[in-house]
Amino acid sequence: MSFAQVALPLPLKEPFDYAIPEGMSVRLGQRVLVPLGRRKQTGVVVGLLKESSVKGMKAILEVLDPEPILSPALLKFTRWIADYYLCGWGEALALTLPPLMKRRPKPAPEKALPAAVRPFALNEAQARAAEAISQALQAGHPEAFLLRGITGSGKTEVYLDALDTVVGLGGSAIVLVPEIALTPQTWSRFEARFPGQVVVLHSGLSAGERARGFARLLKGEAKVALGPRSALFAPVQDLRLIIVDEESEPSYKQENAPRYHARDAALVRAKMEGAVAVLGSATPSFEAYHNAHSGKLTLLELPDRIGTSRLPQVRFIDLLDWDKQGSAPDDALAPDLVQALEENLAKGEQSLLFLNRRGFAPVWACAACGQAVQCDQCSISQTLHRNAHSHDPAQGTLRCHLCGNSQKPPKICPNPLCKKPLLRAVGAGTQRLEEEVKRIFPQARVRRVDRDTATGAGFHAELGDAMRAGEVDILLGTQMLAKGLDFPDLTLVGVVNADTSLSFPDFRSGERTFQLLVQVAGRAGRGQKKGLVLIQTRQTEHPCLQFAAKQDFGAYYKDSIDERRELGYPPFGRLAALVFRSKDKDKALEKADEAARALSALIQKEGLAIQVLGPAPSPLVLVKGWWRYRLLLKSRSSQSLHRLLDPWAYQWKDHACFLAVDLDPVSFL
């Protein structure tokens, strides 16, 4: 009798052994149906054995795939994911698998394909970057590059040139983009260059669409897999190139198990398979830029915009001065920004207003005591959303943006010591901004883009068509507008409140604010017309804002990196966040405290150079009715963190308190 090791989608480090019945053919990389307790479970065959020491094992019930669907290379890569991010191998393998179809997926319906496009001529900087990547591809050398190019510098053309080389060599590639919303427009551009060769993979597709795309890549019928972070696990044949566009975006980090970072994992998969990796960004992460200067990545730079377009002029509007002049408490737009919008409308050019808060107002609070209405399941204020049929804020809905709980705005203060009927909307969200813009410019054609309006698969394509046809005068919205937009008549960008993200309790808050401002400012003046960016802020002298205004990433990095070095934060140190979650507040704190003592004792016993910070309440201590307390482990090396947490993290068992272990966290909320 022979045996198979089967990895199941459970938080277990090692696979289970199962007997292979006589006459059944089982191969590595196939899915199988196995008994697990009283249930049946789908798993993946990750090993074949002639002997097993397990007593009383059960047998495989059924082989679900006629041929292996996972290559040895993908099995090896997912094992690395499991080991590094401290999750079950089966949990990592689940990222690679297509929907399990009982029937053959129907052929894809025919859809209009973009007209083929003969490549643009590269400028000198683009040509140098493209040549360096091409040489590595042709040599079969697994080199990793960081392509730093200012907004509008033509990074995508360098990507396309690299893909030309890959397809010419008969190989395949994976292209990652940070958001699903950017995938359709990127697909259109890539498909026009490589007709019939591009497969889109993301969670928004139907099961049949995902299964068809998986099959085309597995058979080698398509050469380019395109999508957000999960596309990294595409079963491409003869992988030669992985591109991670906008590598600094936090959306590349998965927040639930397995908590992998697609940028970091892309470098590992590329190295394992002898492929070239290209990380691209106008505003690189500090980690990537540090690695470029330490020789781990090869730095390629695009310092100028393509064609005749130039970076926009950037000016600050000091809201402190506006406050002194008696600003209206409910107004979001300062007079200078209103005047600039008016002038842009008169010229027939388009404007973009950026405010990273959706809804009508972020707070519904008492004017007498300041008490805000909180969500009873989460430790945040509920956001007021205006009723589309009424301009009275009191007729709107209060909604929690974490758990979705909603209620009608109360008329009486929730503070038992106040109880006054003086509640009002405080602050501005995109709904309120839209209302203000329409009041000031009734003749303007205004379009709002946020998670409340950007619905439907064709939304972004329709928005692009409307902008290019000149059917929108003022576009306003959240960070969904900060990247991926390229409209030649969009010449004015107004940042309504640049200070919001600077106050986040996160050592990366300045870096994130810099990246966001540079990206949104880069939407202005991408054609032949000059661009202007106006930034409203109460911190005009903040280094982050000053460097962002100049789009000078190198200077901002030099100004900020010494503080990171002194504090031992990335890129000079490694972090692990341990979050203890329970419906019982005291239980969560108790278990976090126990873990802190146990880990501190292990650190001392093993002589590890690890600092334990906490326990402390998470910045959002209550989310969806769960109380959350956090430990933060800080070390100079990931090896020390793994030596401490493996196998400790796998042994955690407490049905009243759950533990989440996050290696290299990017969010601390």
Task: Describe the model.
The chain has 5 domains: 2-93, PriA, 3(prime) DNA-binding domain (GIY-YIG endonuclease), CATH 3.40.1440; 124-302, P-loop containing nucleotide triphosphate hydrolases (Rossmann fold); 313-358 and 429-563, Rossmann fold (3-Layer(aba) Sandwich); 362-426, no CATH class; 574-663, 2-Layer Sandwich (Alpha-Beta Plaits). The chain is an alpha/beta fold and 669 residues long. 29% of the residues lie in helices and 23% in strands. The chain contains 17 helices and 27 strands. The mean pLDDT is 92. Helix 1 crosses helix 7 (262-272), helix 3 packs parallel to helix 4 (155-168) and helix 14 (543-549) packs antiparallel against helix 15 (553-567).
Q: What is the general shape?
A: globular
Q: What is the residue-averaged pLDDT?
A: 92
**Poorly predicted ranges (pLDDT <50, ≥5 residues)?**
none
Domains counted in the coordinates: how many? Answer: 5
Q: How many beta-strand runs?
A: 27
Level-1 CATH class name of the largest domain: Alpha Beta
**Going by CATH, what is the homologous superfamily of the largest domain?**
P-loop containing nucleotide triphosphate hydrolases
- Strand content of the residues, in percent? 15-25%
Number of helices: 17
Order the strands across the largest sheet as they lie in space. Answer: 8-9-7-10-11-6-12
Please compute the radius of gyration using only Cα atoms.
27 Å
- Second CATH tier, the architecture of the largest domain: 3-Layer(aba) Sandwich
From the helix content, strand content and strand pairing, which structural class follows?
alpha/beta
Biggest β-sheet: count, sense, barrel? 7 strands, parallel
Question: Roughly how many Å apart are the termini?
Answer: 52 Å
CATH T-level fold name of the largest domain: Rossmann fold
Q: State the share of residues found in helices, binned by percent.
A: 25-40%
